[in-house]
């Protein structure tokens, strides 16, 4: 539908609250609209329309005993986003009219609105829709509190009140503002009412400048995070901040913990996560650290509950009814098990997360709950539990495009809906489900320092200690007993979430100084005190403490203190220069300490733009010790600044002329990062030398072809030859990477398209980048058709294909979509079996039979694994596997081996200077070389000096499909036996 028509339709709905835009108000300003300006817009569904909604629910997969019905559809709703229920059972929804506008256009004519839906006969289907508030920018979420609706719509949080009860909010007040947005939905979501009475909301990484009502600045920055305030807009605070792109929704556990969904917490590869947002937590992401610059950090790596992968998580809710929990057991509820439902925008799914207390935080297990397999234009955005225990699932339809990786084009004609998921034996109008959860008591009844101190020192419960630390962080005083108690906890080994809470309390207590001297003999306490000192007001003392600790760091082994020194030096604004005298001493040690060199490398990388630090790199490049030079080469090979210091060129040129084959690869990567043609003659000679190892020729070719330089016919011939080398995994992967980065002509792209069906998953991932190298429709279609023929197309997520084609030729995606969906369907079918199979293992698995299956080679397990003296120790030893892995874990390892790679069992592809290509696991590292175990179980010693390329593979040596070599009963027997091995 043309945008001008949509704009006209939108205009028909703009009128319920007069001429009022988000930009018209500032925080703490309110406006009451005159009664004669209010023109209520009400849509009622007649009996036929209601009957139609009841009959039009899409095909769905659900657990046994549950059903899906349509609770509201057009014309009652257009594109619902997020919402809430009030105390009368009315459903309030942020509703979009289908326009993908940026901030400027949204503020010029705010097009979206909040709808109020009513179900008068309580049959589960809404019959009436009223525009409760219009002229909103992008309403995403709502909560009802004391007769008003609080709504998140950029740039802030609004209080909307219908004082006269006619279904229209004539009173509007933005209680908190200052949150930036662009129109891509990564902005304010919520708010949500915590059991402590405060409103909490989420905000994406768009920037913010937030002030209290009196104008006092709360915080200004780029971080995303979780915020809160009192219902009147007072006492605004940030609860957690971080680097993630878009925290989307939160809910609260009975103990008041804040659990929520978050998009793009990880980036390479993308990972959308379930988070436990800890008070005062600053959550990192390696490629977005600028966003949290200057914030007080505790842990270097904050804990994450669950990584969903690239699914675009959206709304979530913790079930209060108990209907969804195993066996509907309140006993299990009392044991702490929670069910949380999460919507996946990209995959037409709602998943049920089983949350089980795990120390201070939670362990999550994912179960698919609802899926619409035949509805690609459905995009779930929210899930709400009503008083009957039903789930209301919001589908925003196909309109949203800005920043959405799963939508190739806006489809506003694909309207949204509200679906109801309910028990078949529980119909509308029955008695309300009893709430089985006993909710939070305010601050665990901590009211003063004495109670906090008692809980901190006398209670062995880690969660109670966290609550005490949180109270202390909010009420820091000068009580020496409290300080001593926190210092004592700083010197204790605890789990990360509790460590964060202790550090957070200590930050508040010692913000103005008063930290004890740092004694490096106590590494644990010293390391935490060093981090605290570096974030205090007295940076001179912090620098002195850093230097003192660095001079005394132990060179042997992996030291917690060394890690704190590295972290502190990286974070301090002048940490690089402060550390230069100590790092110079480290270079003079012979032999140089590997640990200290690694510390120096990370400190240099953090302060790479400082000229004294660059000069220090020049000294490393000219060092007499090759170990020192290698660290400098690595630093240059990974830099992303594009800096070229003239002092680096001469020692690099000398090293290129003298280096052995094992160092050339790293050296070439280092000079490739520099903006200099000084090395081109030497590099081209390497490309033309057939006696050189193929990986060296490839790296040299990549270096000479950087930027906009056209790839020569000879270079292209070499790359295509190596891409088809079935015996050399390393060469294939490297050739694919080079081809994905250099300019290519149409004829070359078409030739590469023909090779795509023969490639493995790693090369295929690189070849997907070719789609963006051309605007020629025929070429793009040829590439799409070739991807459709690949037997490993399912190794790449569907959203990656959609993103690749979105900006070139969206319709070409249709050529590869069926193959992608077929592969996904096969994988989904296996995933859906996991939960039921795990139960079958417990009830029907025969351990003794499983032992026989293993011994006779069923599933080929003993080809790579040992149990006692039986089998071969290529993969992890399974002798006591049942003590650390559940039935589900074991099944997932067999059915999806690459999803659960055990640490130190990653596959490596290695090329040697004599032309050998080896693949296997690295059994050990010695001074002489690597001990490699190949797929046949044969051990081979590979000298370090002979290794010219070593690629860590992201796929398991254990192939997919081994479960298909057994019957389901045999698989259950095998897993039952493995589970018994303790």
TrEMBL record:
- Alphabetical list of InterPro entries matching this protein: 6-blade_b-propeller_TolB-like (IPR011042), Cyt_c-like_dom (IPR009056), Cyt_c-like_dom_sf (IPR036909), DUF7133 (IPR055557), Haem-bd_dom_put (IPR013427), Membrane-bound_put_N (IPR013428)
In this chain the Cytochrome c domain maps to 845-982
Keyword set includes Heme: yes
Which interval of the chain is the signal sequence? Answer: 1-22
Q: Which GO terms describe its molecular function?
A: electron transfer activity; heme binding; metal ion binding
**Which PROSITE patterns is this protein grouped with?**
CYTC
Keyword Hydrolase belongs to the record: no
Keywords in alphabetical order, please.
Heme, Iron, Metal-binding, Signal
Q: What is this protein called?
A: Putative membrane-bound dehydrogenase-like protein
């Amino acid at each position: 539908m043309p945008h001008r028509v949509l704009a006209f339709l939108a205009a028909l709905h703009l009128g319920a609250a007069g001429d009022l835009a988000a930009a018209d108000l500032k925080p703490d300003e309110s406006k009451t609209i005159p009664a004669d300006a209010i023109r209520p817009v009400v849509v009622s569904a007649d009996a036929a329309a209601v009957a139609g909604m009841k009959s039009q629910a899409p095909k769905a997969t659900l657990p046994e005993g549950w059903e899906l019905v349509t609770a509201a559809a057009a014309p009652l709703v257009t594109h619902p986003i997020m919402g809430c229920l009030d105390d009368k059972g009315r459903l309030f929804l942020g509703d979009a009219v289908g326009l993908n506008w940026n901030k400027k256009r949204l503020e010029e004519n705010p097009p979206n609105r909040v709808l109020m839906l009513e179900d008068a006969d309580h049959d589960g289907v809404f019959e009436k829709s009223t525009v409760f508030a219009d002229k909103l920018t992008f309403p995403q979420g709502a909560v009802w509190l004391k007769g008003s609706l609080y709504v998140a719509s950029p740039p802030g949080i609004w209080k909307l009140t219908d004082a006269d009860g006619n279904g229209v909010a004539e009173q509007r007040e933005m209680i908190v503002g200052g949150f930036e947005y662009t129109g891509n939905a990564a902005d304010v979501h919520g708010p949500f009412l915590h059991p402590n009475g405060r409103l909490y909301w989420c905000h994406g990484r768009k920037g913010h400048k937030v002030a209290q009502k009196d104008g006092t600045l709360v915080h200004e920055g780029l971080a995303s995070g979780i915020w809160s305030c009192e219902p009147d807009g007072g006492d605004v605070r940030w609860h957690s901040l971080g680097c993630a792109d878009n925290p989307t929704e939160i809910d609260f556990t009975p103990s008041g913990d804040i659990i929520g969904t978050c998009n793009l917490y990880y980036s390479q590869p993308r990972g959308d996560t379930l988070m436990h947002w800890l008070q005062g937590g600053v959550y990192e992401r390696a490629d977005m650290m600028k966003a949290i610059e200057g914030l007080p950090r505790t842990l270097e790596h904050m804990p994450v509950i669950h990584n969903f992968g690239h699914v675009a998580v959206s709304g979530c809710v913790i079930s209060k009814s108990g209907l969804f929990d195993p066996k509907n057991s309140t006993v299990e509820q009392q044991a702490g098990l929670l069910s949380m439902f999460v919507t996946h925008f990209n995959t037409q799914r709602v998943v049920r997360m089983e949350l089980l207390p795990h120390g201070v935080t939670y362990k999550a297990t994912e179960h698919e709950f609802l899926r619409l397999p035949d509805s690609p234009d459905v995009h779930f955005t929210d899930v709400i539990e009503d008083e009957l225990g039903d789930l209301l699932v919001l589908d925003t339809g196909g309109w949203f495009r800005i920043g959405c990786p799963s939508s190739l084009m806006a489809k506003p004609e694909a309207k949204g809906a509200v679906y109801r998921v309910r028990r078949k034996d529980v119909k509308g109008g029955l008695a309300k489900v009893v709430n089985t959860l006993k909710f939070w008591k305010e601050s665990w009844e901590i009211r003063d320092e004495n109670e906090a101190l008692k809980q901190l020192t006398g209670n062995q419960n880690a969660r109670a200690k966290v609550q005490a630390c949180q109270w202390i962080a909010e009420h820091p005083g000068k009580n020496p007993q409290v300080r001593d108690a926190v210092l004592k906890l700083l010197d204790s080994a605890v789990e990360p979430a509790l460590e964060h809470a202790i550090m957070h309390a200590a930050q508040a207590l010692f913000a103005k100084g008063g930290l004890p001297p740092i004694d490096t003999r106590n590494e644990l306490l010293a390391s935490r005190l060093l981090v605290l000192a570096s974030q205090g007001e007295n940076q001179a003392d912090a620098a002195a403490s850093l230097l003192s600790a660095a001079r005394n760091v132990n060179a042997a082994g992996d030291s917690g203190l060394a890690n704190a020194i590295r972290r502190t030096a990286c974070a301090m604004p002048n940490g690089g220069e402060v550390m230069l005298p100590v790092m110079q001493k480290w270079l003079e040690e012979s032999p140089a300490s590997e640990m200290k060199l690694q510390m120096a490398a990370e400190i240099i990388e953090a302060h790479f733009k400082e000229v004294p630090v660059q000069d220090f790199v020049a000294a490393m490049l000219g060092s007499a010790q090759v170990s020192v030079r290698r660290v400098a080469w690595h630093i240059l090979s990974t830099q992303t600044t594009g800096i070229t210091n003239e002092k680096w060129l001469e020692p690099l040129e000398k090293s290129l002329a003298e280096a052995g084959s094992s160092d050339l690869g790293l050296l070439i990567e280092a000079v490739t990062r520099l903006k200099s043609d000084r090395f081109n003659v030497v590099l081209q000679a390497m490309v033309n030398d057939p006696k050189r190892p193929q990986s060296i020729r490839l790296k040299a070719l990549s270096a000479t072809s950087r930027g906009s330089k056209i790839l020569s016919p000879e270079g292209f011939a070499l790359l295509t030859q190596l891409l088809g080398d079935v015996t050399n995994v390393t060469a294939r992967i490297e050739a694919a990477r080079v081809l994905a980065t250099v300019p290519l002509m149409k004829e070359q792209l078409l030739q590469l398209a023909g090779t795509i069906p023969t490639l493995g998953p790693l090369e295929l991932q690189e070849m997907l980048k070719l789609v963006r190298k051309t605007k020629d429709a025929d070429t793009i279609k040829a590439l799409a058709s070739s991807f459709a023929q690949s037997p490993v197309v399912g190794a790449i997520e569907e959203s990656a294909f959609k993103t690749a084609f979105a900006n070139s030729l969206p319709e070409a995606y249709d050529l590869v979509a069926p193959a992608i969906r077929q592969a996904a369907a096969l994988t989904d079918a296996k995933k859906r079996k996991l939960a039921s199979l795990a139960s079958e293992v417990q009830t029907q698995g025969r351990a003794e039979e499983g032992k026989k299956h293993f011994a006779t080679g069923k599933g080929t397990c003993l080809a790579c694994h040992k149990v006692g003296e039986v089998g071969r120790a290529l993969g992890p030893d399974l002798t006591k596997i049942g003590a650390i892995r559940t039935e589900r874990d074991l099944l997932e390892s067999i059915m999806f081996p690459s999803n659960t790679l055990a640490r130190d069992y990653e596959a490596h592809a290695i090329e040697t200077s004599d032309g050998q290509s080896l693949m296997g696991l690295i059994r050990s590292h010695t001074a002489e070389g690597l001990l490699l175990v190949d797929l046949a179980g044969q051990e081979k010693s590979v000298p370090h000096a002979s290794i010219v390329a070593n690629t860590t593979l992201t796929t398991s040596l254990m192939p997919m499909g081994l479960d298909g070599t057994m019957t389901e009963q045999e698989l259950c027997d095998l897993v039952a036996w493995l589970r018994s091995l303790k």
